[in-house]
Amino acid sequence: MTRRGMLLLVLAWCLLAASARAQVPPGGVPEETAPADSTETTFADRVLEIEARLTAEQDSLLSQGTPAAIVERHINTKRTRLLRQAEDADLEARGIARPLFFNCSNTPEVGVTANVNQVDYTVRWANSVKARDGGTINNNFGLGMDTFRRQDRTTETRNASIDYGSGQLMPVVLSAQARIDWSEDITTNTGGITNVNARKVRRVGLGVSRTQLLTGLISHNLMGGGYYNDQNAVNQQQINNFREGEINGAIRSGAPIAEGINVATRIYGIWRDGESVLSGFESPSSTLGDSLGAGAYYKRTLLQGAIVATQSSFDKRYLDFRRNSNGLIDTTESNLPAGASKVVQELEENDALDLKWDNTITVGSAKLVSKLVHTTQRERYRESAVGRKEKSEDILELRFTVPVGADSFAIGYKYNLRSDDQRIADASANRGRQDNKVREFSADWFRDVFSRTTLSARYQTELRQDIAEAVDGEPFNQNDRDRLSQNVRIRLEAVWPGVFSASLLGEYQAIDDISIRESRSANNNLKTTYEIAPSYRLFIGPRLTLNQTFRIYIQYQDYTFVDYPGVNKEDGFNKRGNLGTSLSWEPSDRLSVDLKHDYNQKYNGKRTSRDATGAAFYRRDQDQFINRIELGMAWAATDWLDLSTATYRTKDVVKRFGSTNTEDTRYSGELWVGGVIKHSWGPTARPLVLDATIRRYLAYGPNVTDTSDDYWRADVTMKWTF
To answer: What is residue 32's predicted lDDT score, i.e. its pLDDT?
Structure first.
């Protein structure tokens, strides 16, 4: 028997054994039922008797060393069940029958959503029934249709589902579901060719679960289920059908082993089997997977963290279109081997391992947070040209924070190594490992310089390396590159709540890109960026606020080999200035007005020469000036109606310099007017609700099409509960 077969057998046995013990608490004593009904015993007396017995059992468990948290969960679960049994007995003694089903509610809903691209129509009906002991039955039905304004296309959807939950009716929680989803997308392209993309999926399932099951000091959570899926689909005249049954189950167990230390394990298994049809080919399909995990969790005086290991794998057999070495569908006849089919009976295997350690050390006000992660993954394909892939990732993160007087410091370091290798199908050797290494260091400083005024600074540097391992002297690609980035940022912030706030940001950044391969070295360059951005917010009055932000941004891009013969790169610069102003005014509780203005300047140029001192001279190639003004208003007309409108106008001027100077001025703008309605009629328990948002859009500009210059946008739903 295979390892996975043994795993599923052990999982099934554990589920059966745990279910058999579901009614036996620690110590092996059967759970007590509610006291027998007696006409001389009132319900209050039975409640007192139950509480007395539960208190005695709780003291007994605690005296045996069972952790208080586990005992509390066990006693609460048992109290709920015994009180329910006592209440049932009391109602029966008084001749009152508890209904099996009650509180039936129906909620029909219709809606329409329209925008510049499409119009969606929806109809939904939701039905819910409550059952005894917290059980529920829910039904949902839905219809939908979409029409598109810019293409000859319509889509339709239908769905229906029913779900049942047993609540506390049984020792385990039982859930059952059935669902049908149907969709059809009919699209006709500009060449007059019509494609039908249709899909119908039916699914039924049954699941059981049990939480907080105690066996000694160990607490278990159990779950299992079985499902059946049936799909009929067609797209591009290619049939894609399958019928599969599935069984899955999981056990999660945990126990304390010492003060502040707990261990937990989990096991999960899935088995799926069926038949599939793809483009006229029929074949069995199956999936067999498992996952094993274990972890230790600790919280002591100075330490807190967790160590977790997880191993998972699956084997999946299915029909698939032939794929190339990049995993993309490749059914072009010229690329198929002689006599080969575009459909293959694929076998996909995947094994993964994940190791993780999170740890926090706290000494006084100083804290060191660390994280270690190691993951590996192996993928194998029997038919696809992808062949076999091996991936791994290692992560180390450290962050140390400590306050010193009025200052706070934080230092961080991160190392990340991602690797992947591949042996393409039928190849005699691997392509060569691709490594991506990232090393990052950061330092932060915070200081309260004055009352309500904070100064902060940050330095960050990162080295990112892409490395291709050579095989037989030839690398798989020529994309080897190093990127070194450095960033220095200083920010001064002052806040006087309700009166004034201001911020001053200064930043310097340098990004150095180096291509290792000679064939790409002409791209080597250094980007240097300078930025300063002051801003403030002034509360002029209780209902009037002024906000302004000014930003200057300058970037130089210098190519390393720009002066070498045959290199066509040019050093350049990009300068930007932005002034943003906004004014918010609330004349009354119902009316608000927002006015905004943005002014942008952009300058681009190229380096022309350098003098003997190394100073660079640049020519200006392009200037751009953008003015944008916006106005928006919102008015709460009634308790259920909000009206709003907004408009903007933009002037964009572009000047280009060269042998012939040109100037291009473009105007654009938009106006929309709309409202939001939220209103209900009838009693609170059975309301008729209207929820609608409607807007009319008018727009103009060089990027505005015939379908977007004048259109309605709406989202309207009508819902009734009874």
So the answer is: 42
b/e 261-274 (16+ beta carbons within 10 angstroms → b): ebbbebbbbbbbeb
Angstrom CA distances, 498 to 59, 194, 452, 540, stand at 56, 62, 13, 9
Contacts of 705 (CB under 8 A, 6+ apart): none
DSSP conformation letters of 609-639: EE-TT--EEEEEEEEEEEEEEEEEEEEE-SS
Percent of the chain exceeding pLDDT 90 equals 57
Provide the residue count of the chain.
Answer: 722
Of 654, 650, 673, 671, the C-alpha closest to 663 is 654
Helix axes 43-63, 68-93, angle to 10 degrees: 160
**Rounded CA separation 677/472 (Å):** 71
Burial class (CB in 10 A: 0-12, 13-18, 19+), 613: exposed
For the residues of 255-294, what is the DSSP string, one character each?
A: EEEETTEEEEEEEEEEEEEEEEEETTEEEEEEEEEEEEEE
CA dihedral of 232, 235, 239, 240, whole degrees rounded to 10: -60
Cα angle 205, 210, 212; round to 5:
155
The CB-side HSE value for 248 (13 A sphere, CA atoms) comes to 19
CA dist., res. 284 & res. 274, Å (int): 6
- Secondary structure class of 170 (helix, strand, coil): coil
Q: DSSP class of residue 329?
A: B
Of the candidates 173, 169, 174, 172, the one whose C-alpha atom is nearest the C-alpha of residue 133 is: 169
**Which three-class secondary structure state does DSSP give residue 333?**
helix
User: How many other CB atoms sit within 10 Å of the CB of residue 649?
Assistant: 16
Q: Provide the 10 A C-beta neighbour count for residue 251.
A: 20
For tokens 């001025």, the residue is: 665
- Structure confidence by residue, pLDDT tens digits, 402-419: 998 889 999 999 999 999
Compute the 3-state secondary structure of the chain and give helix, strand, coil in percent, each to the nearest 5.
10, 65, 25
Residue 64 pLDDT level (bands cut at 50, 70, 90): low
Q: Is the pLDDT of residue 11 over 50?
A: no
- Give 616's contacts (C-beta < 8 A, 6+ positions apart): 571, 607, 609, 610
Contact of 244 with 202, CB cutoff 8 Å:
no
Tokens 């200081």 -> residue:
447
Segment 142-146 long-range contacts (CB within 8 Å, at least 24 positions apart): 144/120, 145/120, 145/121, 146/118, 146/119, 146/120, 146/121
- Distance between the two ends of the chain, CA-based, in angstroms? 57
Distances in Å between the alpha carbon of 331 and those of 234, 381, 384, 539? 17, 17, 12, 65
DSSP one-letter code for 518:
G
Question: For residue 92, how many other CB atoms are within 10 A of its CB?
Answer: 12
Q: Which two tokens stand for residue 298?
A: 């600790």
Contact status, residue 490 vs residue 443, Cβ threshold 8 Å: no
Q: Give strand ranges (E) for 236-260.
A: 238-258
At 16, the amino acid letter reads L
User: What whole-number distance in Å separates Cα of residue 268 and Cα of residue 270?
Assistant: 7
β-strand pairing of 281-299 with 366-381: unpaired
Specify whether the CB–CB gap between 688 and 720 falls below 8 A. yes
- Structure token pair of residue 290: 């498992």
Pairing of the two strands 616-636 and 641-656: antiparallel
Is pLDDT above 90 for 154?
yes
Q: Which two tokens stand for residue 327?
A: 């995993």
